[in-house]
Amino acid sequence: MTLPDQADENGQSAHFRALEQLYASAPINNLFRSELEILEPGRSRITFSAQEAHFHAAGAAHGTIYFKMLDDAAFYAANSLVSDRFLLTTGFNLHFTKPIRGGTVVAEGRWVSGKRRVFIAEANLVDEEGDEIGRGTGTFMRSHIALSGLSGYRQPD
After folding, report:
1. Among the four residues 14, 75, 105, 127, which has the most C-beta atoms within 10 Å?
2. Residue 19: which of 39, 47, 3 has the closest Cα?
3. What confidence tier does 41 reach under pLDDT thresholds 50, 70, 90?
4. Which residues form the Thioesterase domain (predicted)?
């Protein structure tokens, strides 16, 4: 699998750190506390703690937490390959395999294909026991929104 062209290693690292800051600055993450790491081009990891506040009436995490974490992990895996534009999710398919009843959950995102305008990435969720609890695949499109114009996207000096 060939990854889209990237800047030099220093520029790439700065882009990854700026994406992590962008993620942390999103107001939605005040509701769903989580941390993003861009591991390498086309790979991301989000770690979060499933809380009772995320549960539906039957005592497990509501599907919104699955979607948010899977979408975010896949999105940032794809956007790690694009240093000038913000991507937009145009479609996402997810599968629930086990209920989340609490604890630390990790979402791992991986770029699958696409190099110019449309990107495909996948993600999976794993619970504290190491069991897969969900997976999804998303399609992401390059937008007209410049990353450099977003207040949360700040590259280190």
Report:
1. 75
2. 39
3. very high
4. 59-132
